[in-house]
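The material for today's practical consists of a large collection of protein records. Getting from the letters to the tokens is the skill we practise here. To make this concrete, we reproduce a full record directly below:
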Amino acid sequence: MSTPQPTESREGPHVIVAGGSIDIRWYIERCLRALGPVRVVQATTGRATLHLARAFRPALIIAEYMMPGLSSPVLYRALRADPQTRGIPVLFIGNGEPLVPTIGDGFLAKPFNARHLRAAAERLLDRPLTPHPPPP
């Protein structure tokens, strides 16, 4: 049996943005959309993130390190244990340095800006995010 591949469409890669803070989720979504075509799905808890990852098989998950529901280590282990989600890179976002540097595929410390987010996302996606062309 082959491993399912992350979903990508003409609109760009699917990305799950997860966290308890609506302000952080919307900021990340706006940053990603400004950088190129991307389909964003938001999740408010670790459990919702796991459910959406299984349903959408996104190209990337960006999640707050501290969020309701499953803890970040439990979420990461659950994603890695499932053949449908084990290949999805996970970028955790949190205050300061990562508490557990071995959890996740990347860590982005707050505060961050669109340039930092882009660099981290491109590193995990293994391809550039192309900015939208200016309107004519």
Q: What stands out?
A: Confidence is low (pLDDT under 50) at residues 1-9, 131-136. The chain has one domain: 8-125. The two ends are 47 Å apart (CA to CA). The CA atoms of residues 6 and 59 lie 5 Å apart.
